[in-house]
C-alpha cells in the first residue's frame, strides 16, 4: 500500500510542477510583451528624432545653397561695377587725350600769332626807317609832277598784276578749303551712316534679349507653379502620415486596455492556484533560469528601436495566449478529475494504469522542453540583429555630430565672406569718390580751356584789326613812295610766303605720317582687346555650362529623395492596411488555439522579414547622409573658388587704385604746367599788343601831320585812287562771296557735329539698356557674348577709333 501511495504522490507532484511551469511561462510572456512594447515606443521616438535631424540638415543645406546664390549675385554685381569703372576710366583718359590735343592746337595758334606779331614789328621798323623828315618839298613837288605820267602807267600795270595775283591766291585757298570741307562732310556722313547701322543692330539685339527675358520669366513662373504643386502634395502626404500616427496611438491605447484586463485575469488565476503550489524549490530554480533568459532578451531588445509595427502583432499574441490560458485552465480541471478517477482506479485495479499516465505526462513534458529550445534559438537570432542595429545607430549619431560641426564651420566662413563683401563695397565707394574727383578736375580743366579759347579769340580779333590798320597805312605809304620799291618788296614777301608754305607742307606730311602710324597701332590694340574679350566669353560659357550641369544633378538628386519619401509613405500606408487586416484575422484565429502553436514559427519568420525591411530603410537613410556629405564637399569646393576669386579681385582693385592715383597726379601736373605756360604767353601777348597800340598811335599822329603837306601832291593821283578803289571793290565782292561759302560750310559742319553728338547719346543709352538686359540674363547664364561685343563696338565708336568702311 505504501508503494501506490508514493507513486500517486509523485504523479501529483509532477502535475503541480507542470502547472507551475505553465504559469511561470505565462508570466514571463507577459513581462516580455511589456518590455517589447516599451522598447518599440523608444525605437519610434528615436526614429522620429533621427528624421528630425535629417530634416534639419536638409534645411541647413537649402539655406547654404541660397546664401551661395546670393553671394554669386553679389559677385556678378561687383564684376559689373568694375566693368563700369573701367569704362569711366577709359572715358576719362579719352577726355585727357582730347584736352592734350586741344592744348597742342592752342600752342600752335600761339606760335602763329607770335610769328605774325614779329612780322608786324619788322614791318613797323622798316616803315620807320623809310620815313624821313620832309626836306625840300619844292624839289619833291617838281620831281613828282614830272614823274606823274610815269607813275600813272606803272600804277595801272602794277594794280593789274596785283589784282591778278591776289585773285589767283584767293581762288586757290578757297578751292583747297572747299575740298577739305567736302572731305570732312563725306567722312562725317559715312560715320553717321555707320553709327545708324550700329544703332539698328543694337536695337535688334535689345529686342531679342527682351524676348529671351520674357521666355525665361515664363519658364520661371511655370517652375514656381510646379514647386507649389509639389509642396501641396508633400503637405497632403504629411497630413496622411500624421493621421496614420494617430491611428497607431489609438490602437496602442486599445492594446494597453486589453493587457490590463489580461493582468487582472492572471491575478485571479494566481489566487485560485496559490493553494496548489508546494514545490517552491524547483520553481525557484526555473525562475532563475528564466531570469537569465530574460536578461538576454532585454539586451537583445534594447537596440530594436525602429520597429513600431510589432506592437499589434504582440497584442494579437497576447489574445491568443489568453485563449490558450483558458484552455489550459479547462485542461487542468479535467486533469484533476482524471487524477481523482485514476486514484480510485488505482485503489481498485493494478498499478499499470498509473505507469501509462506517467509516460503520457513525460511525453508532454518533452514536447514543452523542445518548444522552449526553439524559442531560445529565436531569441539568440534576435539578439544578434539587435547588436548589429545598435552599432549602426552609434555610427549614425557620430556622423550627425560631425555634420553639425561642419555646419558651424560653414556658417563661420559665410560670415567672413559677408564681412569681405562689405569691405569690397567700401572700396568701390572710395573708387567712386576718386573718379568723381577726377571728373571734377577734368571739368575745371575744360572750363579753363574755354576761357583761354575765348581770350585767344579776342586776341585774334585785335590782331586782325591791327593788321587791317597796318595794311591801310602800307597802302598810303606805298602810294606816296615809288612804285618800283613796292614791286620789289611785294616780290620778296611772296618769296617768303612760298618758303613758309613749303615748310608747312612738310610739317603737315610729317604729322599725317605720325597719325597714320598711330592709327595702325590703335587698330592692333583693338584686335588684341577683341581676342581677349572672345577668350573671356568662351571661359564664361564653359563656366555657365558646368554650373547648369551641377544644377541638373542637384535637381535629379532632389527628385530621387522625394520619390524615396513617397515610396516610404506608400509602404507606411500598406503596412497600416495590413495591420488592420491582421487584427481582423487575429480575431478569427482566436477560435483555433491548436493551430496557433504551429504558426508561431511562421510569425517568427515574418519578424525577420520586418527586420530586413527596417534594415533597408536604415540603408536608405545612410544613402541620404552620404548624399549630404557629397553636397557638403561641393559647397566647400565652391567656397574655395570664391575665396580665390576674392583675392584676385582685391589685387585688381589695388592695382587700379595705384594706376588711377598715378594718372590723376600726372594729369594735375600737366594741367598746372599748361596753365602756367598759357598764362605767361597771354601776358606776353598783351604786352606786345600794348606796344603795337602805342606805335600805331604815334604813326597816326605823324600821318595826320604829313597829310596837311601831301594833300596838294595827291590831288593829281585821284584818278589812280579811283581805279584802285574799283579794283578793291571787285576784290571785296569776291572775298564776301568766299566768306559766305565758308560760313555755310561751317554751319553744315556744326550741324553734322550736333547730329554725331545726338547719336552718341543714343548709342550710350542703348548700351545701358543692353547692360541692364545682361544683368537680368546673367542669372540664367546667357547673353554674355552678345553684350560684350556690343559694348566693345560702342566704346570704339565713342572713342572714334573704329574705322568706318567707305
Automatic annotation (TrEMBL):
Record keywords, A-Z: Coiled coil
Source organism superkingdom: Eukaryota
Coiled-coil stretches: 68-130, 358-413, 456-561, 650-702
Protein name: Uncharacterized protein
